[in-house]
Structures are given as structure tokens and as C-alpha cells.
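Collaboration report, partner site 2.

Our partner group contributed sequences for two proteins of shared interest, and the home lab folded both. The records are reproduced in the order in which they were received, starting with the first partner submission.
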Amino acid sequence: MRNFTYAAPRNVSEAVRLAGQPDARFIAGGTDLLNLMRDGAQSHGAIVDINGLPLGDIIQRNGVIRIGALARMSDVAAHPAVRRSLPVVSEALLNSASPQVRNMAAVGGNVLQRTRCGYFRDSGTACNKKIPGSGCPALEGENRAHAILGGSDHCIAVNPSDLAVALLAVDAVVQTDRRKIPFADFHVVPGTSPDRETVLGHGELITGFEIPVTPLAARSRYLKLRDRATFEFAVVSVAAALDMRGNTVRDVRLTFGGVATKPWRSPEAEAALRGKPLTTTTITEAGRALVRGAVTREHNEFKVDLVQRALDGLLRDLGGVR
């Protein structure tokens, strides 16, 4: 690991000033960044430890739940307001990592965690995320875990965050020291620049998340399919939020993980349900709409069927369809 300087600022202004240095990086729980630095996948000359900043509160006020960026995953998952009004967020967090990691990891860092693509994590292989222009071995190599949606000829690595999929489903807003960003606009697809994963500027600090308390968010669930029961990233995941009037879908959010290069929302799948009865037929139509633009590779074609089946099961459970 390369040598680096370390600073522990006392307030947000000082943290942002220190992080403005070239090659500086914030650290909170450190559960992702430290592993990347040890493995040689990332290298930084300055580390700015923000654990001392007052950004850990979870507050419900005026129809909004605000979650500080330094709130620990386990605390957010267990919070009564989150469990009551944002069940999809609680479920996504409880399906993340291990209890030990959830006790350490901050929610702000979780939505910024880097992909688990083996080519990115291996310092000895080419990867456009690490070195732009060096190539993407996953395109023709081992790509079982890779994206079928949102990829490009430069990168097909999936975003690994369960929490990000849930926050997208409940219309969360990211607060930074500079602005507010709708969560739908926060992550970006790789295009020709896969090293850029979010719209954050250099040194911009996430301070928290605002989530509206709505009937839609209150009726929400998260389903994660993985290769083993614990401490594993999603092969496919689905977050769904429904606002129903009788059997008719008044409004809906459908978001997905494990299948795309960023937390993925499907307006096409939602349109297949919105304003219609929730039935076997409309659920099937939603699944087909989701994968209509999918691009598969040698080892990940199975995700096309799997994500549709996951969506079907979750919607049936959430909407009481038999």
C-alpha cells in the first residue's frame, strides 16, 4: 500500500477543504476503501477521516425521514421510523454484508462502494475503471456476475449496493455540502468513462439522504437472490413500492440490482403496471418490458429469466396476487 497522509477534521467545512487536495479521499467506516487500497485497486495520497463529524442522525420531521451520511447501516435498519415507513430500506440493509460490517459501515459510504468485478479488484489485470483506455476483459472473459442493462463496450461491471437500489425505489434525495441531488440522477452509466460512477465533484461530501414518507414507500419490499445465504452480493435483486387502490396500481417504483451498471429503475416496467389491475398478465408484461433492451454475454444470459422471476415473486407477495 502506498504511503498517505491522514487528517481528522472537526467540521464539514474543514473536511471539504482537506478533501479538495489532489488525490484525497474521504473515509468513514472504511469497509470498502481500505480493502481497495490494500489490494492495489485504488491509491490515494491523502485520507480525510470524517467519523468525527455530526452526520449520524436519523430524524423524521414534516413528512420526511432524514438519514445522516454517517449513520451506521445496522442503526438505520433497526430504526422504528425506517421499519415503519421505509421497509424496503430496512430489508435491503439487513440483506447487506454481515452484522459485523453493518455495525461499522456508514450509509454514505455504502452507496459509493465500488464494483466487485474481479478484474477491477485485481491490480494485475486491465480495467477501464482503474486505467481508462486499458480495456475491459469481462466483455469476453468471466462475466457471470456482470450487467445485462446499462453497459457499454468499455464496462459491464454491476453496482453492488443493496441500499442504493432501495433508495432509488423511494425517491430519495442525496444531500451534499453543495447541493441536493435526486437519487435517480446520482449514479451514471459507464459510457466511454467508466471511471466516473457518480455526479459528485472532487471533494464533494455526502452529508445525508432525505426520503419522503408516502403511501408508496410504506408498501415496499426488497428481494435479493444470491449464491449463498449470507455475506454475498446480489446475483439479482428487486425493490418494489406499490400504491394501490383496490386491485389497481395507482403508482409504482421498480428498481433492480445485480443486473445493471448502476442502481436501475425501469420506467417501462412501471408503465406496464401503472393504472392497471395487478394480475399475472400485467406482472408478466412488466418483466418483459424490463429486459427488452438487455444485452447478454456468454455467462450471464440466465439473468434475463432470473430477474423476471424475481420481479414476479416480489410483486405477487407485495400485491397479494395468487
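Second partner submission, folded after the first:
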Amino acid sequence: MRKLFTGLNRYAAALGLAAGIAATPAAAVELSFYYPVAVGGPITRIVDGMAADFERENPGIRIKPVYSGSYQDTIAKVLTAVKGGDAPHIAVLLSTDMYTLIDENAVVAYDDLVSTPAERQWLNSFYPGFMKNSQTGGKTWGIPFQRSTVVMYWNKELFREAGLDPERAPQTWAELVDYGQRLTRRDAAGNVTTWGVQVPSSGFPYWLFQTFTTQNGIELMNAAGTETYFDRPQVIEALQFWVDLSRRHGIHPPGVVEWGTTPKDFFERKAAIIYTTTGNLTNIRNNAGFEFGVAMLPAGAQRGTPTGGGNLHIFSRSSAAERAAALKFVQWLSAPERAAQWAIDTGYVAVSPAAWETERMKRYVADFPAPTVARDQLQYAVAELSTHDNQRVTKALNDGLQAALTGTKTPAQAMQDAQREAERILRRYR
């Protein structure tokens, strides 16, 4: 379970860490905070506002947000900064970057920072589903912040027009195919004007693919991040089902479907059902000009989804005072009231049960219950694909998925090739 400081040296370090903040109240500690978004837009205003609010409550600490582009841009910039001796103090990075950050000795375990019963209780306060990509080796390396699952959105108007119950989403793979056939529309020339189902396969194809593999009763990797199972029969069957939505059933766009344009296709009635992150919930609520529903993903052998999104990490190459201040900021960001407001503002899942018990969240879901879908789906969630040398392993799988979806390889050949490459990459970690 949770480990406290052991030995006199660590005990002395803990006392010095606390004293460092208390002894120099006049000297503000400045923390760089890398956040994965391009500059501008509502998210940056929210983050800037949170930083300002924290500074008002904690005048001895200054927060400097650095907007660092996409998640991929951010991890690249962070690793470059770490190697150059100029690492940030705090960063929001994909939870799947955990092993990479550990292998680079870039981050510190939260277990080595907390010291009081209240802090240890805080460390245990998050949904277990989100901790699957936050803990390894008995330690916690990331704190859930903007976390998500994959959910299904459907256009209730198109359901009515197709003679379907607009209040009931497909519950199984078989129903998904049936609904998709009834929802797919073609013009007089036979060209599709509305696809029944759309699952994006650019950007994060492995993540959307995990919905199918989890529903088919298999995980893609082991808990230690040293093995993958891409060529197992259940994985190949799951990929065959995804391919068949287009080639066999004709209810899904052919080839690679863009991640970024999928919500827009939904708004424009080009797709009746889409799979995407619950983090798109606020975007869809604000921009869909029709009544829509949100549901758990349909079951194959079982229900299932990977978790997703970003964790808060504290970097190791900083002073004791900086780490203490960083821990205070992370605790502040993840407090129930703030986690609830962040979920309301963005559509991400509030990361702790306590956040859902706040009056603010209760009022929100009483008026708009859709956010509870992703929360309730956590009981069926598995860890997002994460291994050592994760970016290269993930690329091997993504390349295989896109080869199968575009028809250049069969699902079996694509997954066998991806597994062969993953084994080559991970051999050194076993």
C-alpha cells in the first residue's frame, strides 16, 4: 500500500521541505505548469483563471501556465526540457506516458511527497478505474485531472426518422449493426449522405480500438507495461468487427476516419451515431442543433471502454520547496469543488466520488444527466494502452489498425505484424 518516508534522511528531508516554505514566506516560489493545448480559446482562460485563484489563496506561490500544444507536442517538449536540465515543475500529460516518465527519471512519486494522514487519504480518494494508468510498482505517479472514457452519442431526431426509439441506444454489437443499417441514408445516386455509425481512426486509433477489444474480453497489455497481446484471437476478432462495419455491413465510412472532424460530422447529420471522448460532451452540447443522447458503449461479450485523458505530474528535478508548492497546487486542482467545476466546464469526468457529491455537481446533473454515463461506465473500464517506450509501441498498433481499415492488410496480418514490432521494442524491458 502507500509508503511513507523511511529512514532518518528521508524524515529530515520531509521536515526540511515543510520548513522551506514556512521560513521564506516573502520569497515567492514560481512554478511552471505545462498544459497541453494551443494558445487561445476557452480552456486557456479557464486554466489562467484557476492559476490566478490559486495565487490569491496562496500568495507565496506563483503559477506560470505554459500552453504546449497537443499531448504529443507536450510530452516531446517536456522530455527535451528534462534532458536539457530545464524541466517544468508540473505538467498535464497523457496517463499513458507514465512508464516513459519513470524510465527517464523525470517525475517523483506522490507517495514520496505526502506525509500526513489527510494527504494519504487524498491520494486514495480517486476512482480506482482512473488509477490503473496512474500507479505502478506500488506507487502513484500521476493524479487524475482531465480524464475520460469513450462514450456513444446519438442523434435522437435521426432515430425517430428511422423508426427507432430515440431514448434507447444500441446495447449490443448486433444491435449496433441493426441500428446502423436503419440509420444509414443514401441519395438517389447511391451515395451515402448519413452514416449509421462513425468511429474515428486517426489521432488515437488504438484508444477507440480498445473499446472493441475490451468488449471482446481481452486487454492489450500486461499491468507491468512489458508485454502486448495484439495477435491474440480476441484482438483480431475485434478488429474484424470494426472493419466489417464498413466493408460487410456498409454502415461506417471506409478507410481512416478523422478524429477532429467526427464531432462536426455529427453536428451536420453526416453520422447518426459516433464514438468519441466524454471530453467532447460540452462541445457537443453547445453545438448540436438537435436533441442528442449519450450512452455507454454497446457490449460484445461484455461492456467495456478504456479510460483516457491526462494526469498531473510533479517533476523530480526541482527543489524541496518547489515540490512542496507543486503538491499543494495539485491538491488544490483536484479538490472536489474544483474537480466538479472543471468537469462542468469541459465535459471531462469528475475524478473522485466526492466531486459528484458537491452541490454544484448535483445541480448540474439534475438538469443535464448525460455526464453520469461516463462515470457509471468506469465499472467496466480498463487501463488505456500503456507500455514502456509507449509511443513506439502505440505507433506499431496504430499503423496496423490503419492498414486493416484501409484494406492493405487483413486484420490477422496487421495484428501479427504489430505484435512482432511491439515484442522487438519491449524485449529490453523484460
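Feedback sent to the partner group on the second submission included the following. Residues 1-25 have pLDDT under 50 and may be disordered. The chain is about 45% helix and 15% strand.
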